[in-house]
Amino acid sequence: MAGSTLEIKNLHVSIEDKEILKGVDLTIKGGEFHAVMGPNGTGKSTLASAIMGHPKYEITEGSVLLDGEDVLEMEVDERARAGLFLAMQYPSEISGVTTSDFLRSSINARRGEGNEISLMNFIKEMDSALDYLDIDKNMAQRYLNEGFSGGEKKRNEILQLLLLKPEIAILDEIDSGLDIDALKIVSKGINRLRDENFGCLIITHYQRLLNYITPDKVHVMMQGRVVKSGGPELAKRLEAEGYEWIKEELGIEDETVEQKA
Amino acid sequence: MTVETKLPYDKEYIDQFSKERNEPEWMLELRLQALEQADALELPKPDKTKIGKWNFSQFKHTATGAAIQSLKELPNELQEFLDQENAPENLLIQRNHSVAYNTLSKELKDKGVIFTDIFTALQKHDDLVKRYYMKDAVSIDEHRLTALHAALMNGGVFVYVPKNVEVEVPLQTIFWQEDPEVALFNHVLVVADEGSSLTYVENYFSHNEKEATVANVVTEVIAQDNAKISFGAVDNFAHGTTAYNNRRGVAYRDATVDWALGQMNDGNTVSENITHLVGENSLSNAKTVSVGRGDQTQNFTAKIVHFGKNSEGYILQHGVMKDKSTSIFNGIGKIEHGASKANAEQESRVLMLSEKARGDANPILLIDEDDVTAGHAASVGRVDPIQLYYLMSRGITQEEAERLIIHGFLAPVVNQLPIEAVKNQLTQVIERKVY
Ligand SMILES: Nc1ncnc2c1ncn2[C@@H]1O[C@H](COP(=O)(O)OP(=O)(O)OP(=O)(O)O)[C@@H](O)[C@H]1O
Ligand SMILES: [Mg+2]
């Protein structure tokens, strides 16, 4: 079998004792691109964060497996080394740590002790990725995300994605704050990874990203659950008609996580 | 343990000590006067730190050290301070109380630059030393430690840059306390005459883990009109040394005194860095980093006093506290009456790495003039778990992620150090202290 498989089963997640995810099921296989859409505050970022191991989110029920391995038992760094990647909706700023030092540490973390990338090769790979994403080379010497514009932060996330080459990536609103040109460049970066060994879960509000990156499957989240799944045409319909029709179809009045279904 | 408060060094001892070194008469008098004053004066009272029981009296006062012919003879720990590629052109190594090595480029000599140990300076440049020694910056009678310093001064360096001479290559001093019991009553006097500029960097280093001794260091840095001094230091006394480190700058008209200080002692330490912006348009950037570990108690003061109109002072203190260490960070911006248009800014950040460590940042603004600007920011916190999460989400282990965050936190000051080797050495000291 090619690539890895991420299985999310009946996932329940709370934050500060408030249940936000109420049973999410989703399976992403190598070679597949899934889009997750849904109104604001319906649990999309919570899903992404819980999978990666964000310290604030508590898993109360369910499981997440990567190729059968229990992801929830792993530390955050182990999850990454196992092949998971999350491009965050709001990446942290880290003062005093240059982007380039951080990238090198990240790459070496995945490669493991004794197998570190040589400085020469690192610079070569980084430069070519910077070029590919049309990022100013100076960015590598700037402190990680510090003072970066919204768009620069997103490009930096994709830069990391390209250099770390994970098996499964989750991209949380990677398109927000991007101008049209940047959107094309970022999409190009993501598409470059597209092959049978790479699975991707793309959280987005807009069809425009999906125009560049055609998903195999589209899921809609409401009330902390996946309430509807379909093919690329589902995203197109959402773009044209909004979410009302789904709510009507399913008898949902308040789509946020506040309400009981 | 009982603490001796009476010094074993008396008038006769000092008289002999001074005569053996052929010191000028004024110096002997200054010492004897200081000794008399010392008994009556009280210890300094650093805010929120009690130093009454610290060891300021148990030490050996003198020790010599052998000269070295080549830098290769230095132990590895000291090699780290030096640029390995290009042997430093301007370097002084003080080993215990002897000069082990001293070079100054011919070019600088020809221009009249002086870079020599304090005793040689007292012989050869008596007038210059006399003019500045404990006059414009630090006074003998500030408290008992300044008086003891003056009485027992047993080492140090004198730097003088004549008018309009610009020194581009840094001057570097290494104070190597090789004997584990010997005390350093070190006096560093740096004078930049009108329109001149220089960069000076010093390292303090000792090995005395267990043996108790004292470092009582007074540094006076004087920038005359339009002069610019950039002063860097890494203090790295071992656990047995109780350190009192007083670095004081004076900036006259249009002058600049910048500091980049790595305060990395392992023993109890009182460190005060004060700059007097005396002249109009004078400027100081005072940046310090500190790491506390083990059971040490430290008190750091970064203070800039504005007398001159339009003077600007910027304080940046970053400290990392681990184990059971305790540190107080005082940041003081003081604007005197008449210093209109002065700007006093300060920022103090303390990062706590253990539950048992204690850290306290006290930002203080004392303003006696209306037409000024001033600001302060202070925080005491832990490593941000969201930052850790972000780094770890790229596969970086928690330990390595913390390491990156801590080095990043200290980087604004470390990067300021003007000698690459010293910068790297400070990074290594931080590495050793934090892990
Ligand atoms: N740290 C937090 N503290 C308190 N509530 C939180 C926290 N994080 C998320 N929530 C709540 O959980 C719910 C789901 O948030 P989440 O960020 O998962 O939504 P989302 O679907 O990603 O929304 P958006 O499209 O706006 O990004 C919201 O009601 C949000 O307020
Ligand atoms: Mg979100």
Describe this structure in words.
The complex is a heterodimer of chains A (261) and B (435). By secondary structure, chain A is of the alpha/beta class. Chain A has a domain at 5-96 and 166-250: Rossmann fold. Chain A is 36% helix and 25% strand. Chain A has helices at 44-52, 76-82, 99-111, 119-132, 150-164, 180-192, 207-212, 232-241, 244-250; strands at 5-15, 18-29, 33-37, 57-66, 69-70, 84-87, 168-172, 199-203, 217-222, 225-230. In chain A, strands 6-7-8-3-9-10 form a six-stranded mixed β-sheet, with helices on both faces. A four-stranded antiparallel β-sheet of chain A has the order 2-1-4-5. In chain A, a hairpin with a 2-residue loop joins strand 9 (217-222) and strand 10 (225-230). The radius of gyration of chain A is 18 Å and the shape is globular. Chain A starts with a strand and ends in an 11-residue tail after the last helix. Chain B has two domains: 11-279, no CATH class; 383-435, no CATH class. In chain B, 23% of the residues lie in helices and 38% in strands. Chain B has 435 residues and is α/β, with parallel strands linked by helices. Chain B is globular and about 65 Å long. The two termini of chain B are 31 Å apart. The A-B interface holds A 52-55, 75-77, 79-81, 85-86, 88, 91-92, 94-97, 101-102, 105-106, 109-110, 143, 160, 164 and B 384-398, 400-401, 404-405, 407-412. Magnesium ion binds next to helix 1 of chain A. Chain B: One of its GO terms (biological process) is iron-sulfur cluster assembly.
